[in-house]
């Protein structure tokens, strides 16, 4: 027996005004994983074109984040792995045959032109979004180029090379004692869960397809270990889950997390492969069913970093992320698609809606009730709002004269700092961020002390697992 499909209640916009910072780099759509590969960064450019043509730019600040540096990536990833990513290219990849095997770069995670720059854009947006949240310069930060949740400390996985989410959470932990990570991608958020599996500083919560499906992790019994026991929440789902059914499990679980864990910041991964009709997905969510999760998380009023993720039917991903951007700035957009650079993608009806299909929902009421009961029982065993000894973050010091650019930084940014700062895109569209200044994202002095030893020590304990092969399959 399965839940009957039923329409979702209309989404009601909150009257609460929240400042939104939106991060976009026009270069992101230029990268391609290769002919026939399902991951297409072009979908981010399509979403941005819709966002602009709906006029949503009038209700938020749009920035081009500084790309993440090798040093910043190494706050989570190993030096050896990041160095490999920065050096390997399609032209020299034969010289890195052993490294490609070691770091799981090859089939699902191919070497392509501009690979490191693509990773830098994704990581930079999430880190800088977190930095602006920390400084109180926005209430919500959006980075649709982020959400690459499968990347491991020393290994690519599931189309993901650098885990921008972990980097963003580490930035948030400099100011926040507790962060909750919520993942609505159809695939388990294994890379983020693994990074914080032994700490109570971060609670990870993933709703995903489980059973003969990539990455093969995320069963109900995976709840964390050591200090992190019961701080990893997994809700395994079956094929065909629809809007009403998803809402019936998502909202009670998130409510319980907010009541028991009392996070002070949220990271929400909005993978679009949980939408109906996705090329690699198996769920049956409509655009509004997916967006209901975003609206519900927003209603708690916490500092929130919103990132992208999977999604392999490009027109539906662009539709949904645009609609969700509207919800985040307090505006419902649609139903007609405005004329934009990619208008022909949305035919024949040129409507914003992503509709569910008539696929069977394999999630019975009994099954979901059993999973939900177990998840809520595990949550009740956590300490109520665990306390964390925090180190005071020093006030910003007076600005110093900028240091001369190193050759490495010039190569990475394609020019000097002055050239980068002047590289502003179309007037009225977006501006380069100020990168948060001293004490912000670029200031990583004594980073371990500011974050607190708990998380960084927990991450270091995973060193011995770097060579563990990833589960095969598609993300």
Record keyword descriptors for this entry:
about 475 residues, alpha/beta, Arginase, Chain A, 9-stranded parallel β-sheet, 15 helices, about 30% helix, about 10% strand, globular, disordered N terminus, disordered C terminus, metal ion binding, transcription regulation
What does this structure look like?
The protein has a nine-stranded parallel β-sheet with strand order 6-5-4-7-8-3-1-2-9, with helices on both faces. Helix 7 (190-195) links the parallel strand 4 and strand 5 (202-209). Residues 1-6, 394-428 and 444-474 have low confidence and may be disordered. Helices cover 32% and strands 9% of the residues. The chain is an alpha/beta fold and 475 residues long. The longest helix is centred in the first third of the chain and has 20 residues, at 115-134. The protein has 15 helices and nine strands. The protein starts with 19 loop residues before the first strand and ends in a 15-residue tail after the last helix. It has one domain (23-388): Arginase, Chain A (3-Layer(aba) Sandwich).
